[in-house]
Amino acid sequence: MASNRCERIRGRLTHHRRRRDTQTGAAATPQAAKTDSDFDLHVPALSSVISSVRIPAGIVCLLASAFTAAADFDLAKSLKAIEARYNSVRTLELDFEQTYTAPNKSRRAESGRLFLRKPGRMRWEYAKPAGKLFVSDGADYWYFNPLANRAEKMKLKEATDMQAPLAFLIGKLDFGRDFGKFTVSHDGALAKITAEPRNVTKAPYREVTFQVTADARIETLRVTGQDASTMDFHFRNELRNPAQKEAALYTFTPPPGVEVVTP
């Protein structure tokens, strides 16, 4: 199908060039010969980005394919595919890389392994920095910082940490319920979707941007906070429905001697 599309574009460009040359009398003027792989491009559908420039036909086809992919992208269908992918799993495990940036603060990069189990359970187990931990049993949310020797407990629904927007991965994913506005762009083969929460003033974040593969897998995710901070996640090595020991993963007992802060 892509080759047929390129052939149609090639034909349109050749016809356009010949018609232009005839109108300007260029056919009677000695010029360097143009090969079949070289065209003067001024196609109305692409004129917003390219105007009367000589471009190899192979590049034309790549550009045309990119424009066609963007034009053919069905946001509603893509969101439904993402929902189906994540709503169909019971457990999920994946490696993550996490980068935090905020105005007037140093950039912070961390990484580890993420464990998810429906309903409402998650465990962020950090390798960098070692020992850092976020754990939810579906009701309570623990944050353990070994460097500060401190464990903090709160209700999951009250947690304002930047991990909270990822709770949609362990519940009933429904973009229409949780988000009110969507914008779409493309980054190579990935679709880049930005979603704003329905109640922006009450949410701890003002938008979530995620890049999605052709098989509806979320590869990267950016959470932008109300304070203009950003938390970027890159996910890889995804395992769907692995066997898990629930008690060991999703419960937390503060180690002896640790300062415990509760609501």
Describe the fold and architecture.
The chain contains five helices and 14 strands. It is 23% helix and 40% strand. It is globular, with a radius of gyration of 26 Å. It folds into two domains: 2-72, no CATH class; 75-261, Lipoprotein localisation LolA/LolB/LppX (outer membrane lipoprotein receptor (LolB), chain A). The protein has helices at 2-24, 57-72, 75-87, 175-178, 246-250, and strands at residues 38-41, 53-56, 91-101, 108-117, 121-128, 130-137, 140-145, 150-155, 179-187, 190-197, 205-212, 218-225, 230-240, 259-261. The longest helix has 23 residues, at 2-24. By secondary structure, the protein is α+β, with helices and mostly antiparallel strands.
What's the structural blueprint in terms of helices and strands?
Layout lengths: L1 H23 L13 E4 L11 E4 H16 L2 H13 L3 E11 L6 E10 L3 E8 L1 E8 L2 E6 L4 E6 L19 H4 E9 L2 E8 L7 E8 L5 E8 L4 E11 L5 H5 L8 E3 L2
Parallel strand pairs: 8-14
Antiparallel strand pairs: 1-2, 3-4, 3-13, 4-5, 5-6, 6-7, 7-8, 9-10, 10-11, 11-12, 12-13
Helix pairs in contact: 1-2
Output the radius of gyration.
26 Å
Question: Which class best fits the helix and strand makeup?
Answer: alpha+beta
Q: Helix and strand string, N-terminal first?
A: HEEHHEEEEEEHEEEEEHE
Secondary structure tally: strands:
14
| CATH class assignment of the largest domain | Mainly Beta
| Intertermini distance | 60 Å
Regions with little confidence, pLDDT below 50 for 5+ residues = 26-53, 59-69
CATH superfamily of the largest domain: Lipoprotein localisation LolA/LolB/LppX
CATH architecture of the largest domain: Clam
Number of helices: 5
- Summarize model confidence as the mean pLDDT: 78
Range of helix content: 10-25%
Q: Note the beta-strand portion.
A: 35-45%
CATH topology of the largest domain: outer membrane lipoprotein receptor (LolB), chain A
Q: In this structure, how is the largest beta sheet organized?
A: 12 strands, mixed
The domain count comes to 2
* Spatial strand sequence of the major β-sheet: 9-10-11-12-13-3-4-5-6-7-8-14
What general form does the structure show? globular
